[in-house]
């Protein structure tokens, strides 16, 4: 293999992360601290991606619950794609830094995002799915990180369809709630992420992101070249908890198809006790009408 083809050796597909930041009114009930914490966490993650120098790392930023929209967001109401899915650079990190340094972040973002609005979370999941689908790249790892408060965002069951669809496409969903740890988590967040975390400070949030990133991001990759142009790479991940051996799956020895089990439950004393007790048998027969008893005796021509 020559040097020109060497750049393709480790390319097993892109790793894409979409950061979804809530811009709703509930994010500003106690000032702008919750929104600032979320934006700072996103800034730190993007800075880390830029410093890693991995060209296979792609990311995008979406603000939801806005009053403005744009064509990158498919003109869906109350959603604004602030950064399209692609390779990020230091210029975007500087742009986020300028927002974080502003005394009034809402006023600085108002010309772009408008005021706070109310989005449909089913459409949020739909938009993320479309961004992955039409990214123009082969994606081998997809992750969506939500930064919001612990509230009831949607009452419709339509969201369940998109959640299951995203999971069927091997999309990792991570929810980071910027709330007090003592507050119970809304059931909706458990549907997105069974391990949704709550954080009340940037330090706690960074710790939770780092913990979840171990399962979302490969530490390194091992390339394999099997010859004749057959090449692939295997990702290596940190093992952060003990893994048990998966349950064995029975297969047919000839067709190699998965076997199906069918179980029937029968009561222990059903029929046997009555057959062994003549008194109970006579008592049971006496309950039938005479015609029914005579029919049962003569059915089939047998007495």
From TrEMBL:
GO biological process assignments: double-strand break repair via nonhomologous end joining; telomere maintenance
Ku70/Ku80 N-terminal alpha/beta domain: residues covered: 16-180
Organism superkingdom: Eukaryota
Pfam families the record matches: Ku_N (PF03731)
Signal peptide: none
Any one Gene Ontology cellular component term annotated for this protein: Ku70:Ku80 complex
InterPro entries (UniProt xref): Ku_N, SPOC-like_C_dom_sf, vWFA_dom_sf
Stretches for region Disordered: 270-291
Coiled-coil ranges per UniProt: none
Gene Ontology molecular functions: double-stranded DNA binding; telomeric DNA binding
PANTHER family documented for this protein: KU AUTOANTIGEN DNA HELICASE (PTHR12604), X-RAY REPAIR CROSS-COMPLEMENTING PROTEIN 6 (PTHR12604:SF2)
Protein name: Ku70/Ku80 N-terminal alpha/beta domain-containing protein
Organism listed in the record: Ditylenchus dipsaci
């Amino acid at each position: 293999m020559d040097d020109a083809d060497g750049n393709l050796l480790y390319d097993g597909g892109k790793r894409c992360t979409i950061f979804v930041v809530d811009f709703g009114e509930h994010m500003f009930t106690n000032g702008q601290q919750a929104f600032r914490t979320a934006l700072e966490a996103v800034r730190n993650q993007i800075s880390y991606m830029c410093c890693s120098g991995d060209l296979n790392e792609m990311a995008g930023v979406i603000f939801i619950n806005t009053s403005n929209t744009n064509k990158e967001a498919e003109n869906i109401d109350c959603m604004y794609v602030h950064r399209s899915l692609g390779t990020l650079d230091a210029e975007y990190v500087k742009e986020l830094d300028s927002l974080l340094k502003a005394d009034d972040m809402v006023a600085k973002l108002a010309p772009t995002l408008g005021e706070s609005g109310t989005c449909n979370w089913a459409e949020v999941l739909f938009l993320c799915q479309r961004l992955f689908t039409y990214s123009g790249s082969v994606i081998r790892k997809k992750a969506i990180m939500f930064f919001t408060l612990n509230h009831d965002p949607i009452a419709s069951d339509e969201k369940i369809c998109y959640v299951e669809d995203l999971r069927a496409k091997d999309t990792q969903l991570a929810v980071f709630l910027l709330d007090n740890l003592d507050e119970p988590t809304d059931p909706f967040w458990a549907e997105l992420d069974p391990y949704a975390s709550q954080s009340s400070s940037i330090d706690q949030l960074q710790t939770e992101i780092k913990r979840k990133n171990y399962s979302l991001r490969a530490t390194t990759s091992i390339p394999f070249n099997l010859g004749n142009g057959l090449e692939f790479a295997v990702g290596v991940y940190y093992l952060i908890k003990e893994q048990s051996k998966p349950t064995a799956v029975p297969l047919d020895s000839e067709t190699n198809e998965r076997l199906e089990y069918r179980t029937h439950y029968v009561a222990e004393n059903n029929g046997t006790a009555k057959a062994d007790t003549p008194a109970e048998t006579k008592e049971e027969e006496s309950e039938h009408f005479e015609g029914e008893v005579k029919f049962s005796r003569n059915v089939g021509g047998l007495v």
